[in-house]
Amino acid sequence: xxxxxxxxxxxxxxxSEETQLNSEPxxxxxxxxxxxxxxxxxxxxxxxxQAKANAIFQHLWxxxxxxxxxxLHEQHIFRRTIIACEDPSLHLVWFNDAIYTKPLPPxxxxxxxxxxxxxxxxELFSLACGLLxxxxxxxxxxxxxxxxxxxxxxxxxxxxxxxxxxxxLSVKSFLDTNTSTIDKRYRYGxxxxxRLNVIHSLKFLExxxxxxxxxxxxPYLSRYFSMAFLIxxxxxxxxxxxxxxxxxxxxxxxxxxxxxxxxxxxxxxIAVLLITLFLTALIVPIVVFDxxxxxxxxxxxxxxxxxxxx
Length: 310
Known about the structure:
five-stranded mixed sheet
């Protein structure tokens, strides 16, 4: 698939009115969300923005493969838990045995709503087309449809597999011939969270990274400590083997071998020092950041309480 520059505006939704999944009126409330229609722009940008991923778009090759969209049933094949997540920046971001997926807002399947509130904005149109494009890949089979319904990814009354397939094929037909309407983030499918964190941390020098999925120190640090312990184990075995060889009374032990063992032991000592410094440099900023954030939040809460009591 080739992508050109994003078109500025489109007057036509990427699906036909006959295949729309939601036909609720959009006079006073956002269809499917039931919040005031006046909040539409805020809701759409909050629900669709990919600013975080696009800020590091040039480096996304390190976190994912272009066009790598797996259907929902394939996620089950890989024994991944599909987590419904309303943060659009985490859509199709995976870690360990879980993948975040942004539920499809019903209003984006409403023809009149899409035409009136999405089409006039080139940015919103490309973001909405990107999300719809990802769903044409996520839900390809009836088993995918059942997984999406059970997981809260698709909402709507009287929504059937037949209706979804008609909607999907209509969207796919439009986007296959209008690839420039798709936001560039969706050139990539699934993205690895740990690599996104590395990219984001190095580019913006932020310890928090792209997204911190850990709520405790131990799971986060265990990855680094386990690797350090593995290195120490290999080094210990190697040093013990060299020590046994050096202590042999055989005169065949060459001076070059003894010199190599000596240099290797010094290198191991330096490596242990560097790993210790690395782990310290990793832990201390995180602890300081958490303490600082906690103190700032407590001070802010205290000020609000004093104002409310005054």
